[in-house]
Give the backbone structure.
Amino acid sequence: MKFSCNKALLVEAVTNIQRAVSTKSSIPALEGIFLRAKSSGVELCGYDLELGMTTVLEGQIEEPGSLVLSAKLFSDIVRRLPGDTVEIASDAKLVTSIVSGPAQFSIAGIPSEEYPDLPNVHSDQSIDLPQALLRSMVRQTIFAVAETDAKPIHTGTLFELSDHVLKLVSVDGYRLAVRQESVSCDLNTSFVVPGKTLSELLRLLKDEETPLSIQISGRHILFSIDRYTIISRLLEGEFLDYQSAVPASHSTEIVVKTRTFLESVERVSLLITDRLKSPVRCVFEEPCVKISCSTPIGRANDQFEASVSGSPVEMGFNNRYLLDALRFSESDEVRILLNSPIQPMIVRPKQGEDFLFLVLPVRLKSDL
C-alpha cells in the first residue's frame, strides 16, 4: 500500500474516526484504524462492534492495499507532522512508513484480515433530512438520555415516525424530553438509537440545509453525512409509554423569559456543590417567581417578574435538571405548566408544540 494525501484533511478524518475505535478489546485490530487505499481514495474506518464510522479521503494512490494501524499512535503521529502532505507506505510485512516534510516514522501494522466486517444495512426504509433540523432535534433531547443502564433501552433516544411527523424522545427516570417536527416522509416506524451514537452524530452534523440520509434495518441504522457514514446497532426493549407520563391538564400556567429564569436559578445554585446538595425552591405566584436555596454554606433568595395564571404553587427541583430544561429550550420565552407540588413540571414553547420537557419535582421538607 502506498498513497499520499493532505495532512489537514487526514488529521480531521483520523480525529473523527478515532472516536469510534474501541479503547480496550480482546481483538487487537479493533483498537486500530482500518485504512484501505483504492482507486476512489483512502478509506478510514473505526469500529467497536456497536458503533462504526467510515470516511473516504482524496489522495494520490500509487499502490492499493489495506492494513490496520494503532489508532492512538497513528493519531498522535499525524497531528504532529510538520508538512502539508503525508505519504504513507507499507511493505509485505506491514511495516508502515509515515513521512511528512523531514519527519519520518516507521510503525508496525496489523493485517486487515483481522478486522471485523461492519454490518450491512440493506433496507427500503430510508429518510432524508436537512442536517440543521436533525442537529437541532438531537441537541434538544440528548441531555435527557439515561446515563446508567438500569434499563438499557433508555440509554438511547426513541425516533418515532408517524403521519409525516418525526418525534425524538429521551427519558432518564427524572425527566423527559420530546421534540417533534413535520417531515416529508411516508414511513410509519419507531426505533431507539444509542445516546453514544447520537453524540458522535452531533459532532458531524452541520447547521445547514445540506441533507443527510438515514437507512433503518431490523437491528442497525446507518447515517450518511457528507463523506462520512455512521453505522450503529439499535437498542432493543420496551420504551417508556411517554404519552401517559405527561399530565393531560394543568391548573397553573407561567409565561417567563427563559434567560431571566435560567440566570436566577444559576445564582441561587452557587450554594449547591457535589457534597452539599439541596433542592431549588420555586414559588410561582402572580406577579413573580420567587426562588431560594438553603445549604450549610448559607441561603440565597431571588425573584423575577412573570405572567402567572391559576393557583399559586410552591415546589422544589434538582437545580441541574431545571437548568437543562431551560437551557435546551433554545427559546426566548417558555410556558411552564403545573398542577401540584408533587406532579411534574412541563416546559413548552410560548407558542406551538415543537418541544416538551418534563421535570420531576423534589419533595421539600415542608411537604413531608
User: Anything to note?
Assistant: The mean pLDDT is 94.
